[in-house]
Amino acid sequence: MGVQLGRKAEDATPPPQQSGERLEHSPILTLFLAALAAGGWCRSSRGRAG
Q: Which ranges of the chain does DSSP label H, i.e. alpha helix?
């Protein structure tokens, strides 16, 4: 059918050029925000139970 599966060279994201871009491409910020949200959820659910 002519369907090519795989990644193309133009799909690749260029490496970060500035120091702030490195944080945008890193999963650390996402993990921090997820942990912060989970902590807030646990704290609020504990307050409702007691």
A: 19-24, 28-49
Backbone angles phi, psi at 36, to 5 degrees: -65, -45
Q: Tokens 């989970």 identify what position? A: 38
Cα separation, 48 vs 9, in Å, equals 52
Tens of each residue's pLDDT in the chain, 50 residues: 788 777 776 667 778 888 788 877 788 888 999 999 999 999 888 877 65
For 5-17, letters b (16+ CB in 10 Å) and e give eeeeeeeeeeeee
